[in-house]
Write a structure and sequence with these properties.
flat, single chain, mainly alpha
Amino acid sequence: MKLFRMAAVLALVAGPAFAQESPHINLMADGPAKTDDEKAADAARDKAYKETLKKIPDAKASSDPWGGMRADAPKQPAPRAAAASTSKKPKAGTAAN
């Protein structure tokens, strides 16, 4: 019985080591090489893509709708003078937020 346990432990230890030494086999066959026409079409596609990227305008302002709600001050505060002068007082009996 003791011999059987030793053989089982040896098999468990030696199994992963044997698997690491096995030759590496690539099961994916390499595809055929691209022809000159395919290479030219790829180059033209890449050139058109890069030209399209150059046409995208740079973002001038932040599009963060919650930018003023954060703890850190916004870089360019929005003018609030017009909104402060036209504020209305709530009517009596209405709930103020």
